[in-house]
Every structure is written in C-alpha cells, then in structure tokens.
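Hi there,

I know you've been waiting on this one. I reran it after we fixed the sequence typo, so this is the corrected version. Both the input and the resulting structure follow.
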Amino acid sequence: MPVRGHRFPGGPADHLPHAVRTWRDVGAAHGVVGNEAMVAQMRKGALEYCVMALIGDDERYGFELVQRLRDFDGVVTTEGTIYPLLSRLRKDGRVETSWRESDSGPPRRYYRLTESGRESLERFAREWERFRDSVNAILKERTTRSSRQSEFPSPLPAGPGRTLSAAPPRR
C-alpha cells in the first residue's frame, strides 16, 4: 500500500527518503518487518484520538492515560509515547492543562479537552466509522469471493502433462 502523497502532515512517509514507497519500506526504515510495521503505523495514526477519547469530558493525568490504554488490546503504549503526544495536543490547542497536588507524590498535570479538541475528536469519530465500515466491506467481499471460488474446484487437477487452462489441449 503506497504511503507517499497521504493527506495528513506528520504521517508515515513525511520524514523518510523519497525511495520509501510502501508500508514494507516504512517498516524496513524503522527496523520493523512484516505486519508489525503496518500495525505500528495504524496505531500511531489513531493513538492521539484514543487519548482524546479517554480524556473525554473528564480531566486525566498522563500516567492514568497510559494505564487506561493498557486495558485495550493492541493499543498498549508507554509514557515515552504519551507525554510527547499530550504536549503536541496542548500546543495544537486541543487540550488544556492544570496542575494539582497529589496525595501520593509530586503535583500532577491534568489534561482536559478544549472545544477545538472535542470538535477534532468528533470529526475523527465520524471519519473513522466511515473508513472502518468501508474496510470491513472490502474484506468481507474478499472473503465472500474466495469462499465462492473454493466451492467450485477445478475439474482438472494439475499434474505431469496437465494444465489448468480451460482451453482443450492442442493436437
């Protein structure tokens, strides 16, 4: 799947050389092979919206978000990923912060969505649903098509001197 020419700045190919053209190339450039690169890129693209959804109408602190994300299979992340993401969301004006004393240690920075953050999350949710439904329909079509093909096996098994072409052998 090509990754160059995507619509979103900061996407998978922005920081890679021009020769990088596929998910496999992205993975190779990051030392990841196979499906791991694809999953890492999908996770990276959706993570900020997952964080925003977890914040929702509440206020949450960074480590609390890391702990909550661990509850969801496939979205596990670390503090080293979350804190830069939260900083970027704050700089973009999608979250605002406040400091509060903690009963169990140093003060904590709490994050809450701004109006801009709520609007961004709502737009993402609509687009994600449309995208997810389209991908599911395509995958279902592929599954349906391949199950139909397996219902009608070829009457001529392959073997020495035999071909699987529909045309009769030439004489």
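Quick highlight: The beta strands are 60-61, 95-102, 105-113.

Best,
R. S.
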